[in-house]
Write a structure and sequence with these properties.
The complex is a heterodimer of chains A (118) and B (112). With 118 residues, chain A is mostly beta strands. Helix content of chain A is 0%, strand content 52%. Chain A contains no helices and 13 strands. In chain A, the strands form three sheets. In chain A, strands 2, 4, 5, 6, 9, 12 and 13 form a seven-stranded mixed beta sheet that branches. A four-stranded antiparallel beta sheet of chain A has the order 1-3-8-7, with no helix packed on it. The radius of gyration of chain A is 14 Å and the shape is globular. Chain B is mainly beta. Chain B is 0% helix and 53% strand. Chain B has no helices and eleven strands. In chain B, the strands form two sheets. In chain B, strands 2, 4, 5, 9, 10 and 11 form a six-stranded mixed beta sheet that branches. In chain B, β4 and β5 form a beta hairpin. Chain B is globular and about 40 Å long. Classes of the chains: A mainly beta (118), B mainly beta (112). Chain A binds chain B through residues 4, 31, 33, 35, 40-45, 48, 56, 58, 90, 92, 94, 96-98, 101-112, and chain B through 6, 32, 34, 36, 41-46, 49, 89, 91, 93, 96-105.
Chain lengths: 118, 112
């Protein structure tokens, strides 16, 4: 059973460029969350996608956008890159039964994409 | 606003010793408290998690203690091994599947 996969592993961009990161969730999971982890810090929540819609969003600017596809995979797009966007970008998947009051809370993380902005 | 505060930032323990990491939260709506272990170059991996209806949960050498009134919870690693050397993060969320709010992390080094 494949876990959460992310691509690419590493990426180097220059300021002002745009980047797209990809994530495939764990088999059976329908919800994808994205986190940014700066060096030496804990992950910070960017946003979460379920049923191809953004369900929750953290305190990140509109330069950060995403998409979820019918097969539950997801993309994270960052426009107008800044030096401060350099970080490890983590994708986490989970399975949620919305509205039923119960669900699988556990979020399983992928290995991340290391983005360096020069 | 840092809603989950974690301490210490780093910890050195001898093989066979006990590692203790503490976290405090502010939002009383949090109802799910996981701990994640992260090795360099890897994503965080779920270690153990607890809900506020229990005060303690044990899985192997890892134990979570939870104090709802104090809004604090801690991770105890018993019989620490060199392979436990990693960064540990506490986290919290409210309701099923909601966003995780992480602490700042604790780097643990277990000396042989």
């Amino acid at each position: 059973d494949a876990g959460v996969t992310q691509s690419p592993t590493h990426l180097i961009k220059t300021r002002g460029q745009q980047v797209t990161l990809r994530c495939s969730p764990k088999s059976g999971h329908d919800t994808v969350s994205w986190y940014q982890q700066a060096l030496g810090q804990g992950p910070q929540f960017i946003f979460q996608y379920y049923e191809e819609e953004e369900r929750q969003r953290g305190n990140f600017p509109d330069r950060f956008s995403g998409h979820q596809f019918p097969n539950y995979s997801s993309e994270l797009n960052v426009n107008a890159l800044l030096l401060g966007d350099s970080a490890l970008y983590l994708c986490a998947s989970s399975s949620i039964i919305w509205g039923a009051g119960e669900g699988e809370d556990t979020q399983y993380f992928g290995p991340g994409t290391r983005l360096t902005v020069l | 606003q840092q809603q989950v505060k974690q301490s210490p930032q780093s910890l050195i323990v001898q093989k066979g010793g006990i590692s203790i990491i503490n976290c405090a939260y502010e939002n009383t709506a949090f109802d799910y408290f996981p701990w994640y272990q992260q090795f360099p170059g890897k994503g965080p991996a779920l270690l153990i998690a607890i809900r506020p209806d229990v005060s303690e949960k044990k899985e192997g050498r890892f134990t979570i203690s939870f104090n709802k009134s104090a809004k604090q919870f801690s991770l105890h690693i018993m019989d620490s091994q060199p392979g436990d050397s990693a960064t540990y993060f506490c986290a919290a969320s409210k309701a099923a599947g909601n966003k995780l709010t992480f602490g700042g992390g604790t780097r643990v080094l277990v000396k042989p």
